[in-house]
Amino acid sequence: MWPDIIRKAKEGGLNIIQTYVFWNLHEPNQGEWNFEGNRDLVKFIKCIWEQGLWVTLRIGPYIEAEWNMGGFPYWLREVPDIIFRSDNEAFKYHMQKYAEKVINMMKKEKLFADQGGPIVMMQIENEYNNVQLAYRERGISYVKWAANMALSLYNGVPWIMCKQKDAPPTVISTCNGRQCADTFAGPNGPDKPSLWTENWTAQYRVFGDTPSQRAAEDISFAVARFFTRNGTLNNYYMYYGGSNFGRTSSSSFVTTRYYDEAPLDEYGLRREPKFGHLRDLHRALKLSKKPLLRGTPKVERISQDLEITTYEKPSENLCVAFLTNNDTREAKTIHFRGKDYYLPSKSVSILPDCKTVVYNTAAIVAQHSSRNFVVPQQAKFSKWEMFKETIPTINDLKDRTPAPKELYSFTKDVSDYAWYSTSIKIDARDLPMRPDVRPGLHIASLGHALLAFVNGEYIGFEHGSNVEKSHIFRKPVNLTAGDNDITLLAMTVGFPNSGAYMEKRFAGPRAVTLEGLMSGTLDITNNNWGQQVGVNGEKVPVYTEEGAKTVKWVPFAGTPSPVTWYKTYFDAPEGNNPVALRMMSMAKGMVWVNGQSIGRYWVSYNSPLGRPTQEEYHIPRAFLKPKSNLLVVFEETGGNPEKIDILVVNRDTICSVITEYHPPSVNSWERKGNELRALVNPVREAELTCPDNKVIKKVEFVGFGEVDGACGAFKPGKCNSNSKAIKLVESLCLGKNECKVPFERERLVDVGKDACPDVSKTLAIQIACS
Fold it and tell me: Which end of the chain is least crowded, N or C, by CB within 10 Å?
């Protein structure tokens, strides 16, 4: 997928790719390095370079990123006397060893810019100011050491520290956030450029969240303002987020889908208009680059909300102007050099020659799109089979301790799961005598979730949340006179990724009691427990072709059951569109395709909107064979696999929304020498292009006048005169890959038939590609 994603990023107007380096991917076991396959860092950087883009390499080693352990490998947690991210000898030793490994690889391959390669900047540490106070003087000395260590390893390109106000003078402090033009005080010195290393294009989601949104207009406004304030670099976090395959997402309950609201969505498809509107912004800035680089800046405050920023060099006839309206509610008109310019609310207009508006942040000329999940014609599932995990008792679990072991240190990040079991003898006189009264099982857990079984019977499931990992399990149980087996399946949803003292976090059951007995509450926390890391199906492993042959599968009987494996086969869907599973009939668990984990699913955890945060789960085409793909699901609490849907994903619903105040497309101009000139006669028009060389098969909506809704869900407004407009759109667009519809009243509505001639018009078009 890498070349296609990078190509699209370049098409979006980017000229630099920023990436983390994930220590726990590359050194999962101490001294065992892995830079193969998807971990091939050198190949990834060369893929970027092959397409003519630069690289910022953020080696961390702490990266946060909603990634397991913030990028640290688990084994680091068990180094004696270690304190992460502190002036601690054990931590500094391993951090420097890791940094040397990565930097030496880059040097060997001549990938640094001063060697002729693409890497123009490096990052050490990450947002350390967020936790620095917790480490007191050791935090201050650690920051200085980290900067000096980094420069001692390589000083041919600049080093940066994100959100580090007191960064040492040898590195550059940068901004992360949504509005760095207004929140960033500037770098740590007058000799340093103003860098925005993370412009959050939305927000990552956690299970239980509502959808994350950030409008393309808001992002472009923030970027344009940043460049009016001497901005040098704007980097989008994320431009493409992708999927947290396997068990890589962190204990913030982060979803498998990551930053789906980015300009390129989880599947690598262009999310319009965010992709196109930012592409047009980048072109407008590139048209302005000569005056931006050579001109002298000047800021003129017209009023509380209106501002004019120019970069000008009269001797070379270079001038760019940014006209800003900071009023979030009302449009304004600004008078500049003998001419009036209309500015929508909260917007910036860019004039690369101080005369011609080529772009306004609030006026989206780029097309819109709506994502579709479609059932393919082929790729049907074969019959589902199942294999149930055996619910162990203490006699089956050889690892014994008086109380349940702490979950993080027990699993060591090799599995989400750990079994705990104990046996307790109950006297008949201790059991309630009334049939409507039952004892209760009470478990206080530090997180993140657990299932409970009593005498092999499934009792229930409880979980924490992103905000509060700890939770209480409290359910009625059926106990019998004699021995009773209490078995728990505790689980993590990743390891911590942020905060101070990450090496000192804990999870798992901490107290277990039986309530409602005739003799009172019985504390069984120290009753002697047996334990096991992982479920048996993982150890085989049953999600591979060879492993699946080692257990006995039986046909799915239609009744959901907990801790159960399901398998089936399917052929790859037709075409090249991305593939996904809709898991709405299941609850919580993990999925593998041909032995590759596509991550955790959790559809039983609803957001306040009454639906799960993530319903579909991405299967990369690279994981698939043409025929007989093995799909294995491990369901923790119970679901019906027969209702899982396999889908293909497209953005074949394309729209355009243009008003009378929109400027022509920024592609109408070019800079020739020091002069801005029109490539074509600039006209206001709706532009529609089908992706992947598809053609327009249907015009689904045309509105001219007032229009409500959004792409994929338009509705005519009160004043809508569209009969002539529909015919025009159909004549210009049907059967073509792309088309342009001019915004001309006389061509869109007949004279005398305009329902509201005095109303400002909007032209909205929705087409379907095939």
Answer: C
- Note whether residue 569 is domain-resident: yes
Q: Does residue 9 contact residue 44 with C-beta atoms inside 8 Å?
A: no
Query: pLDDT tens digit string along 191-213?
Result: 999 999 999 999 999 999 998 89
| 703-715: b (≥16 Cβ within 10 Å) or e | bbbbbeeebbebe
Continuous segment of H or E residues that includes residue 453: strand 449-454
Tokens of 195: 């860098």
Structural domain includes residue 671: no
CATH label of the domain that carries residue 711: 2.60.120.740
Q: What is the mean pLDDT of residues 692-700?
A: 96
Same domain (yes/no): 517, 558: no
Q: Provide the percentage of residues in the chain whose pLDDT is more than 70.
A: 100
Helical (H) or strand (E) element with 550 = none
9 token code pair:
């990023």
Q: Cα(342)–Cα(224) distance, rounded to whole angstroms?
A: 17
Residues marked as catalytic = 127, 198
Cross-strand partners of 573: none
How confident is the model at residue 738, as a pLDDT?
A: 97
CATH number, domain of 434, equals 2.60.120.260
Indicate if 520 and 553 belong to the same structural domain: no
Burial zone of 693 (CB within 10 Å; 0-12 exposed, 13-18 middle, 19+ buried): exposed
pTM of the model: 0.96
Specify the residue for token string 């270690």. 82
Beta bridge partners of 264: 240, 270
Q: Are residues 346 and 415 in the same domain?
A: no
Domain extent for 590: 382-388+538-643
Task: Round to whole Å and give the CA distance between 386 and 551.
Answer: 10
SS3 per-residue string spanning 503-529: HHCCCCEEEEEEEEECCEEEECCCCCE
Rounded distance between C-alpha atoms, residue 475 and residue 481, angstroms: 19
pLDDT of 661 reads 86
Rounded CA-CA distance 518/433 in Å is: 9
* Backbone Cα Rg of the chain: 30
